[in-house]
Amino acid sequence: MTQPLTPQSDSSKCIRVCQNRACRKQGAAKVLAAFEARLIPGVTVSGCGCLGQCGNGPIVLVLPERIWYRGVRPHEVPLLVEQHQHSLKE
Ligand code: FES
C-alpha cells in the first residue's frame, strides 16, 4: 500500500473503490470485497467508475478526507480501515 496522494475536504462519509477496467485487472474486485467484509456503521462502501488514476490501481478514495490510496491489496484493507476508522465514525 502506498501513502495517500492528496488530502482535501468533502462532506460525505464513504470509501470508494474504483471498479473500472484498469483497476479490475489489478484486483479491485477483491479489494472492494475486503472493504465490504469490514463494514463500518454510517460509512458507505461502494465500487465506482474510473477515478482518473489508471495504472496505479486498485485506487481507493476515502471521504470526507478525500485521501487517495493506490496499489491497494486485499490484505492491506484491515489496516487502511483501522487508520481511518476514527474519522469515519465522527
Ligand atoms: S481504472 Fe481505476 S482509476 Fe481509472
UniProtKB/TrEMBL annotation:
<dbReference type="InterPro" id="IPR036249">
    <property type="entry name" value="Thioredoxin-like_sf"/>
</dbReference>
<dbReference type="Pfam" id="PF01257">
    <property type="entry name" value="2Fe-2S_thioredx"/>
</dbReference>
<protein>
    <submittedName>
        <fullName>(2Fe-2S) ferredoxin domain-containing protein</fullName>
    </submittedName>
</protein>
